[in-house]
């Protein structure tokens, strides 16, 4: 719960710089598919939740349902969390019961009490903490994260954030939102394109490419102070920023030498050094989780394919062979799975993953115009952009391909997504 308070401080500063968006800009979430083995969990309305500025239990239920991992069963609330009869629900196949209560407080805060009990009668988790009113949704996401982790052994991602670009007419907006599409906060508005946002590992900054100088330039922007610095404004194109895991470096694709190549710089733009030295195009760099390798797209084999090489240089290793067109590499946090966009099946651009050990490929999307994949920090979901009904929207697929979500807005196109890190 201390992480919740740290998140709250970050979001408070971020919210202070925000302006109000119209209702039509809110993200709409549609869910399809479920996990192969859903966990039955009973959740009742949070007792006295009218004392909180958000419906705590409704947010928890929505988070767990959206994950596809849980079968949510409604129960009657109780004001006394110590009297929850979890064992009585065992006959219904329920594995655990989550109960919560809200206690009104003062000075713009409320107290939330929470308990997670297995139907074997064992306490799995419990807490009691004060929550500032403006972070009621964050508190609910944190409770959903706790349920997810206690029942699956995997960290939940409901309290994480996403960033993306909205294009409405001639206006472009870089926005940050909760993983469920709520609490939208604008980071940058421009009449020129914004592309390739990339979260810093600590979640306080975003690197991106802006065309406001009538050419692509790489910036890093602090999301709390809104201050930003130019990281790469070399001759030609400056594109595709990607952070190192320790946040001390950025990989970028620059055409300053003629053909686009991969360079690495310090996080403030200093110390620029060239990594690749091919005569073809090398672009879309991504650091490996240990920071020792770079994944990138190159056409050195005749068509775009994905390669990996050491951050210290050397010979690149080709990784993709399943089709003649593979781009946009993203690597999971454990370094075991590569996500990318592959063109096949009559020209369709679709989301694929590659198990780097078994070399097994899997197609995760059934759409035909996908781009910009981004792993959730727990590695179990991938956010990407696609096209639906002639309009760009976002989608989420579980890495087993069973669960799918679509995030859209009523007007305009939403694209260039990136999933933020766990907040510390």
TrEMBL record:
It is found in: Periplasm. Keywords: Cell cycle, Cell division, Periplasm, Signal. Gene3D superfamilies: TolB, C-terminal domain, TolB, N-terminal domain. Residues 1-25 form the signal peptide. GO terms for biological process: cell division; protein import. Residues 27-120 form the TolB N-terminal domain. It holds the Pfam family PD40. The keyword Membrane does not apply. InterPro entries: 6-blade_b-propeller_TolB-like, Tol-Pal_TolB, TolB_N, WD40. The keyword Glycoprotein does not apply. GO terms for cellular component: periplasmic space. The Tol-Pal system is composed of five core proteins: the inner membrane proteins TolA, TolQ and TolR, the periplasmic protein TolB and the outer membrane protein Pal. They form a network linking the inner and outer membranes and the peptidoglycan layer. Belongs to the TolB family. PANTHER family: PROTEIN TOLB, PROTEIN TOLB HOMOLOG. Part of the Tol-Pal system, which plays a role in outer membrane invagination during cell division and is important for maintaining outer membrane integrity. This is Tol-Pal system protein TolB. It comes from Massilia eburnea.
């Amino acid at each position: 719960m201390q992480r919740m308070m740290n998140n709250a401080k970050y979001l408070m500063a971020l919210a202070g710089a925000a302006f109000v968006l119209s209702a039509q800009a809110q993200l709409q979430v549609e869910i399809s598919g479920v996990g192969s083995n859903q966990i039955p969990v009973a959740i009742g309305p949070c007792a006295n939740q009218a004392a909180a500025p958000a419906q705590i239990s409704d947010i928890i239920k929505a988070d767990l349902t959206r994950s596809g991992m849980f079968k949510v069963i409604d129960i009657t609330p109780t004001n006394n969390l110590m009297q929850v009869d979890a064992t009585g629900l065992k006959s219904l196949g329920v594995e655990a019961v989550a109960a919560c209560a809200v206690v009104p407080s003062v000075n713009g805060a409320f107290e939330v009490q929470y308990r997670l009990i297995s139907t074997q009668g064992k306490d799995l988790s419990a807490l009691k903490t004060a929550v500032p009113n403006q972070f009621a949704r964050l508190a609910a996401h944190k409770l959903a994260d706790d349920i997810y982790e206690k029942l699956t052994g995997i960290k939940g991602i409901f309290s994480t954030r996403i960033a993306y670009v909205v294009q409405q007419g001639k206006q472009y907006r870089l926005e940050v939102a909760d993983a469920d599409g709520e609490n939208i906060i604008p980071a940058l508005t421009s009449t020129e394109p914004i592309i390739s946002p990339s979260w810093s590992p600590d979640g306080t900054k975003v690197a991106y490419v802006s065309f406001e100088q009538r050419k692509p330039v790489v910036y890093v922007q602090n999301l709390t102070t809104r201050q930003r610095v130019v990281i790469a404004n070399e001759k030609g194109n400056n594109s595709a920023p990607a952070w190192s895991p320790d946040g001390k470096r950025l990989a970028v694709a620059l055409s300053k030498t003629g053909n686009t190549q991969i360079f690495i710089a310090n996080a403030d733009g200093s110390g620029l050094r060239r990594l690749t030295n091919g005569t073809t195009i090398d672009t879309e760099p991504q650091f490996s989780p240990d920071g020792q390798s770079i994944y990138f797209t190159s056409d050195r084999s005749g068509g775009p394919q994905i390669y990996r090489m050491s951050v210290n240089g050397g010979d690149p290793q080709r990784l993709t062979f399943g089709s003649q067109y593979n781009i946009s590499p993203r690597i999971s946090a454990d370094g075991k799975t590569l996500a990318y966009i592959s063109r096949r099946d009559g020209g369709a651009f679709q989301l694929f993953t590659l198990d780097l050990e078994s070399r097994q490929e899997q197609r995760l999307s059934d759409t035909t115009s996908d781009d910009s994949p981004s792993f959730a920090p727990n590695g179990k979901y991938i956010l990407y952009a696609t096209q639906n009904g002639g309009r760009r929207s976002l989608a989420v697929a579980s890495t087993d391909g069973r669960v799918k979500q679509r995030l859209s807005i009523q007007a305009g196109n939403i694209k260039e997504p990136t999933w933020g890190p766990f907040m510390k």
